[in-house]
TrEMBL record:
UniProt-annotated stretches for the region Disordered: 149-174
Annotated source species: Oceanobacillus oncorhynchi
Transposase InsH N-terminal domain boundaries: 15-106
GO biological process terms, semicolon-separated: DNA transposition
PANTHER family tied to this protein: TRANSPOSASE INSH FOR INSERTION SEQUENCE ELEMENT IS5A-RELATED
Name the record gives this protein: Transposase DDE domain protein
Superkingdom classification of source: Bacteria
Residues of the signal peptide: none
Domain Transposase IS4-like, chain residue ranges per copy: 135-433
């Protein structure tokens, strides 16, 4: 009898249980350190010479997140007390340990460059190229984390406003009012406009204009009550099966989740060759027509929870916008024709013993084009078993959010400004993806060894 050897799954936890030298080498080798070193190193020969080992500082800065060292002060103490750890970080025997001020200057240089974002994209692209990201379903969600400082106190008193004139506006007043409102809307920052304004904006501008200052945010808890926090949001697009972060975005805590979605979607479409991706799944907080439109432009399907907004009941359709017969039985979703973008519904099972079945009153087959209303008609159809199975995969992004907070110190922000806090967020996302890539590479090597044995 032939014995089939099943390869064991090598996960991140096993990677982190390895010896420090092997662990650091596996994770750090996934990142192009030379590129980061070149971006922050002194570009001119003029001025004072560089006495610090910047390569060692960069590696130790990464290892701080790998070893879950909470502060730079604790990192410096570890470097002074643990000679082997210092060697593993790339420092030489003759190198002095950098001060807190030196690490602060390193963070400043990183905050003035987009090198961490580019390194994150390089790691993700390597995972795609090597075949570790072949997700059909992508999940998008946001999570909040607090700023280091408390919200500043409000200054000044409320200005007295002129009371509004009662009664209906005259025709001239209404025209002037509409003109003023249109001008006011046109002059708003991009992320204060309606979401549809983002559809035709280039990706670079979308990412550059994201507000990053710490602000008050609000969300509903499990009891339906509002919870407030002062800080930031992490917006993530995650592969449902691979659990890689495909796109990430850092913003103020006050930014609506839906306003970050188009930047994430365009980033995946323009920067990653995700040929296997077919579905984007999001919760009800992203139920906006422009998001459906962006996903449709990408040639993919939306699986988004519906958020009913003071909408009347549709006659002849159920709550999932499925056609119903005269006796209000829902038709059965049959299939989707991608060529004509059409949903096909067949007669409900109750028609088998319905007296109206043979009267020619009820339609045997319904076909609806999803472009009639991208928000209501999705492929697969809302409420179908296929739709529910895809939507369940949205929990992947919630798991990644939990990993980032619990194991990668996402909610341990040590910087006061949004610009420097973004360095912390970019480091967390980069280390997470680099760890995933390192674990997958070790898993692939183990499989090759077992096959060769």
């Amino acid at each position: 009898m032939t014995i089939i050897r099943q390869p064991s799954l090598f996960v991140i936890q096993e990677l982190y249980d390895m010896e420090p030298t092997q662990k650091y080498e596996a994770i750090i080798s996934a990142i192009d350190l030379d590129r980061i070193y070149h971006a922050i190193n002194k570009q001119s020969r003029l001025g004072a010479p560089v006495e610090l080992n910047y390569a060692g500082m960069i590696i130790s800065f990464f290892i701080r997140y790998i070893e879950r060292i909470p502060t730079i002060k604790d990192l410096i103490k570890r470097l002074n007390d643990d000679f082997v750890f210092k060697m593993n970080c790339g420092f030489l025997v003759s190198d002095s340990t950098p001060s807190e001020a030196a690490y602060s200057r390193l963070v400043t240089k990183l905050s003035e460059s987009d090198i961490l974002e580019k390194s994150f994209e390089s790691v993700t692209l390597a995972a795609v190229t090597e075949g570790f990201i072949v997700d059909e379903v992508i999940a998008i969600d946001a999570t909040h984390f607090e700023a280091r400082d408390k919200a500043p106190a409000k200054k000044g008193e409320k200005s007295e406003t002129t009371p509004k004139k009662r009664g209906r506006k005259s025709k001239e007043e209404r025209e002037q009012y509409l003109k003023d409102q249109a001008e006011k809307e046109a002059n708003l920052p991009l992320y204060e406009k309606k979401i549809e304004a983002q559809l035709d904006v280039p990706l670079d501008i979308l990412r550059a204009e994201v507000p990053i200052a710490p602000k008050w945010g609000v969300k509903k808890n499990a009891d339906g009550k509002n919870e407030y926090w002062f800080g930031y949001k992490a917006h993530l697009a995650v592969g449902a099966s691979s659990q890689y972060i495909l796109q990430s975005l850092f913003s103020s805590g006050s930014l609506n989740d839906g306003k970050a979605a188009i930047a994430l979607l365009k980033g995946m479409d323009q920067r990653l060759p995700l040929t296997s991706a077919s579905y984007q799944t999001l919760d009800a907080g992203y139920d906006f027509e422009p998001i459906y439109e962006q996903i449709h432009r990408m040639g993919q399907q939306s699986v988004i929870a519906y958020n009913k907004r003071n909408e009347g009941e549709m006659i002849g359709f159920d709550k999932n916008f499925v056609p119903t017969c005269l006796r209000e039985h829902s038709y059965k979703y049959d299939s989707f024709d991608p060529k004509y973008e059409t949903l096909k519904y067949t007669r409900p099972k109750e028609c088998s013993d319905c007296p109206l079945a043979n009267e020619g009153i009820c339609q045997k087959v319904y076909k609806i084009k999803i472009t009639t209303d991208l928000r209501r008609y999705t492929a697969p159809a809302r409420g179908s078993k296929a739709w529910k199975n895809i939507f369940k995969q949205r929990t992947a992004v919630e798991r990644v959010n939990a990993y980032l907070k619990e194991f990668y110190q996402l909610n341990n922000v040590r910087y006061r400004t949004g610009k420097r806090a973004k360095v912390h967020f970019d480091m967390v996302a980069l280390i997470y993806n680099a760890s995933k890539l390192a674990a997958d590479r070790i898993q692939a090597e183990l499989i090759q060894q077992q096959q060769a044995a």
